[in-house]
Amino acid sequence: MTVPSPAGRVFEVQARDGEARAGVLRTARGEIRTPVFMPVGTKATVKTLHPDEVRDLGAQILLGNTYHLHFRPGDELIHELGGLHRFMAWDGPILTDSGGFQVFSLRDTIVRVDDDGVTFRNVYDGRPTRFSPELAVRIQANLGSDIAMCLDQVPAAGVSHRQLEEAVRRTTDWARRQRDAPRADGQLQFGITQGGVDPELRRRSTEEIAALGFDGNAIGGLAIGEDRGAMFETTDWAAALLPADRPRYFMGIGDPEGILEVIEAGVDMFDCVLPTRTARTGSALTGTGRINLRNARFARDQGPLEDGCDCPACVRFTRAYIRHLVNQNELLGLRLLSLHNLRFLLELTRAARSAIERGEFDSYKRGVLERLQWTYS
Ligand SMILES: [Zn+2]
After folding, report:
1. Is 108 a residue of the active site?
2. Where are the alpha helices (DSSP H) in 2-132?
3. Interval 33-61: pLDDT, tens
4. How many whole angstroms separate alpha carbon 223 and alpha carbon 231?
5. Is the distance from CB of 52 to CB of 39 less than 8 angstroms?
6. Alpha carbon of 341 to ligand 1 centroid (Å)
7. Residue 373: C-alpha distances to residues 184, 207, 265, 308, 364 (Å)
């Protein structure tokens, strides 16, 4: 179904198929067609790849990381050098994560969490460091990203109800403070919901964050080790509670099944380190599953990583050659696998959008999942 919508808005839904949406998100550095998979460039680089290669694969927006860039090389230095886009020579849109996930996932490094912020020993020199909502805004203003995320409190999967409730309360308080703090010109700001898979707390967080009127809203605190069925079930109803006229972002999902499940629930944006991390293990993502090139069965395999793939690895190189590179720890092997894996997920997402436009998302999803003999693990 094509949906008429006023032009000039930050986000416009152009077609809908069930809850799934195809839309356009307008940022200071260009339009993004959704659903969109966002490659992760944690330390101002998508590991091993040139930004032109990343763009040629079909990437429309990259992720940068507040936590890491704050410490190395420093957000003030990046600001002095003209901002993150200029620093990394990527002129397309950039979304910066707030650092909340890094701070709270490195649990052993946390010294204290209170209503004002969080103190932790940073991974670079071990010194106690204080992050506050206001600092997260300031760092992202220095970086000059197109989309800034709120600092949230991310509790571990399976914490007590009381701890989960405290994280929800704090995440809303911090979100309000960040909404009211000054940020970079033209920078969009997204809120993040918490509440784990607890129906009451997830609903409360979703309603409170939605009420603050951010440019977009993220579903946070999922895909962190909870039961996968419960995660999808929560996403199904929680996504629908977020404002329909704003983009919805599921943080940290990137396997084919996960991507299609959250798109079906009405999510527009997602990110994951899976393609580059999988490459570093010597593995390729394919339509039938994950293949490990170290396996001896590829020694004489003259085929590409994936039949029909148009990426720079598949149009020219054989599995046998890439296996050799991987086994010898040659950097080209890592690069070719990264190029292919990113292309695979970007193309999966592009095809999902096209299926939504045709009103055939359900059959597209079923077709992909039937071929896939592999689920996320
Ligand atoms: Zn390929």
Report:
1. no
2. 51-56, 66-71, 75-80, 84-88, 100-105
3. 999 999 999 999 999 999 999 999 999 99
4. 7
5. no
6. 7
7. 45, 38, 23, 18, 16
Is the pTM here over 0.90, yes or no? yes
d(CA 148, CA 319): 40
Chain-centre distance of CA 234, in angstroms? 18
The rounded distance, in Å, linking the Cα atoms of 136 and 351 is 35
pLDDT tens for 214-254 read 999 999 999 999 999 999 999 999 999 999 999 999 999 99
The gap from C-alpha 196 to its chain's centroid, in whole angstroms, comes to 18
Residues 249, 219 contacting (CB under 8 angstroms): yes
Beta bridge partners of 189: 148
Q: Give the mean pLDDT of the chain.
A: 96
Give me ligand 1 centre to Cα 145, in Å: 30
Distance 283 CA to ligand 1 centre (A): 12
pLDDT at residue 373, as a whole number = 84
Active-site annotation holder among 75, 97, 146, 152: 97
Find out whether 189 and 150 touch, Cβ atoms under 8 Å: yes
Pairing of strands 118-121, 128-131: antiparallel
Question: What's the 360 CA to ligand 1 centre distance in angstroms?
Answer: 25
Phi and psi dihedrals of 118, rounded to 5?
-135, 135
- Residues within 5 Å of ion ligand 1, judged at the Cβ atom: 309, 311, 313-314, 340
Q: How far apart are CA 212 and CA 26, in angstroms?
A: 20
Separation between Cα atoms, residue 37 and residue 371, nearest integer Å: 21
340: number of Cβ within 10 Å: 26
* 116 labelled catalytic: no
